[in-house]
Design a protein that fits this description.
With 531 residues, the protein is of the alpha+beta class. It has four domains: 100 residues, 2-Layer Sandwich (Beta-Lactamase), CATH 3.30.450.20; 109 residues, Beta-Lactamase; 101 residues, Helix Hairpins, CATH 1.10.287; 157 residues, Heat Shock Protein 90. Helix content is 41%, strand content 23%. The protein contains 14 helices and 17 strands. The chain has a five-stranded antiparallel sheet with strand order 2-1-5-4-3. A hairpin with a 5-residue loop joins strand 1 and strand 2. Helix 1 packs across helix 2, helix 10 runs antiparallel to helix 11 and helix 13 runs antiparallel to helix 14.
Length: 531
């Protein structure tokens, strides 16, 4: 009987030469013959896992290293289909490509990762006269060591040949092509196993190779990148990005050139630039339209202020004269009508003022400064108490209410908030209004709160409170134009702040205006006032 080593050598020689299978190949599975045992012993001498398959991908024999690497019991494996023996993910991800390659007479290799064992296994499949040989080896150490071995010639060659990026090497002295990898051969349309390396000029349109070579710096240099045109072997011209850097190739100074087809990207960049130009034109047009609309709005509000308020003042003035001089001549119903006229003219005048304020807010140039709002609150309440001395109201307010913002806009917002609280506490026998500063959600924000025990509002409609002309109460119960809280919101937004409101089940409401307090740089840029 031949020794196991001789049997193994004969097996390898048969595989390499393509000769008919030895006798033991027909009786390997379950064979008790000396040749079968010798062949199995020969498999065990191998330093890597080996699985022998027949033409139908069924396992004929395997060694213990292979059993360990595929994590299966060897007793049940002979006779089993290979893809059923390996882990499910291996079969799912690599079966199709492997079978296609082997059917075409090509070898196929792939690497899989066993996450449970944190292990990388390389599968190498190649055809032979009797079927298929599968080599398995643990390449975990190789995976970890690749970065450390980049300086070695063997590793460089492996990386170069196996890189999916099209790459070729240029001799630093003679400026001739030293090597190109498979990806480059495929890119340029050269045979993968070509031994006749083309000249550099073959990759460039006429005359461009000389200019490109002249542009490369001498000696060692870091990566140089340039977009240029390349010519494939079939004459097709493509736009590429060439990245070139100096390396040592088998102790010879060389330049490593990587090729990236940027034709699609370049076309996308052109489209993007065209789109940007179109968008810029549209934005410019929108800006022009917006400016024109703002001017028209300003003209409208100015006209409304001038042409509506003048006759309104006349109506209000004559109504006041009637009330003063002729109220005795009027009956109760007439005096009621006259009072309604005076109230309506005041409301209309207030609505016109609010509309003008709301329209002018976007164009106001901000002039932020420290402002104490406490004196303003006291002055507003005192003025309203003079008009309605019968009102019973408790005002809770600290000695100071320091805020930072545009004084005129803050005065406008506080006027609206205080007037809102005064109005909705009108039907309370004992009303109260509380003004205070509370902590903001963001560090550096300051929040002004104006709370009251008035009518409150339905929390389901809280999002409508700060919308222009949105009212949650009848104007007969609480007169107003529905613009006060919209003005407050616009003032807060001009300062980069926010507004919100809360209500309680037993009535009352709290309104909040949050403003950044870090300085004028925190505010959105303003626009100059329009004349």
């Amino acid at each position: 009987m031949q020794s196991p080593l001789a049997v193994f050598r004969a097996w390898l020689q048969a595989l390499r030469s393509g000769r008919p299978r030895p006798v033991w190949a027909h009786t390997l599975a379950g064979s008790e013959s000396a040749d079968g045992k010798g062949f199995q012993a020969s498999l065990e001498l191998a330093s890597q896992g080996i699985i022998v398959l027949d033409a139908d991908w069924k396992i004929v024999a395997l060694n213990s290293q292979a059993q360990t690497l595929i994590h299966s019991s060897g007793a049940s494996l002979p006779g089993m289909e290979f893809w059923e023996a390996v882990p499910d993910l291996v079969a799912e991800n690599h079966r199709s490509l492997s079978e296609q390659a082997l059917q075409g007479g090509f070898s196929h290799a792939f690497v899989v990762h066993d996450s449970f064992e944190d292990q990388w296994i390389e599968y190498g499949l190649r055809p032979h006269a009797c079927g298929i040989v599968v080599n398995l080896r643990d390449v975990s150490d190789t995976r970890q060591a690749l970065l450390l071995l980049q300086g070695s010639e063997l590793c460089n060659q492996s990386l170069f040949d196996g890189n999916t990026q099209a790459m070729w090497l240029l001799d630093a002295d003679s400026r001739r092509v030293l090597a190109l990898n498979k990806a480059a051969a495929a890119f340029y349309g050269l045979p993968v196993d070509t031994t006749a390396l083309p000249k550099v000029e073959a990759f460039f349109p006429d005359g461009e190779a000389v200019r490109w070579l002249a542009s490369l710096p001498g000696g060692d240099f870091q990566q140089q990148m340039r977009v240029c045109t390349q010519r494939k072997m079939n004459g097709e011209l493509v736009l590429v990005e060439l990245a070139c850097s100096t390396v040592q190739w088998f102790e010879r100074p060389a330049a490593l050139v990587s090729v990236v087809d940027v034709g699609a990207r370049h076309f996308a960049d052109i489209q993007l630039h065209q789109l940007n130009d179109t968008l810029e034109q549209r934005i410019a047009q929108c800006g022009t339209d917006l400016h024109r609309s703002r001017q028209e709005l300003h003209t409208f509000t100015q006209a409304m202020s001038e042409y509506l308020k003048a006759p309104l003042h006349v109506v209000s003035g004559f109504a006041a004269v009637l009330a003063e001089r002729y109220s005795v001549a009027l009956d109760e119903q007439g005096r009621h009508y006259l009072a309604r006229i005076r109230v309506s003219t005041r409301q209309l005048a207030k609505l016109i003022d609010d509309l003008r304020t709301l329209a002018h807010l976007p164009g106001v140039m901000l002039n932020p400064e420290p402002v104490d709002l406490a004196p303003l609150c006291h002055r507003l309440i005192e003025d309203w108490r003079k008009r309605e001395p019968q009102r019973q109201l408790v005002l809770e307010i600290p000695q100071t209410l320091p805020m930072f913002g545009d004084k005129n806009l803050l005065v406008t917002a506080v006027d609206c908030l205080m007037e809102n609280a005064w109005k909705f506490t009108a039907k309370k026998e004992q009303g109260w209004i509380k003004v205070a500063l509370v902590a903001g959600a963001s560090l550096g924000d300051r929040v002004l709160m104006v709370a009251d025990n008035g009518a409150g509002f339905d929390a389901a409609y809280a999002d409508k409170l700060f919308t222009a002309f949105q009212r949650l109460h009848s104007s007969a119960d609480f007169p107003g134009g529905g613009l006060g809280l919209a003005i407050v919101k616009r003032v807060a937004e001009r300062h980069g702040g926010a507004v919100w409101a809360t209500t309680a089940d037993n009535g009352g409401a709290s309104f909040f205006m949050s403003l950044p307090q870090g300085g004028s740089r925190d505010f959105p840029p303003g626009r100059p006032k329009e004349n």
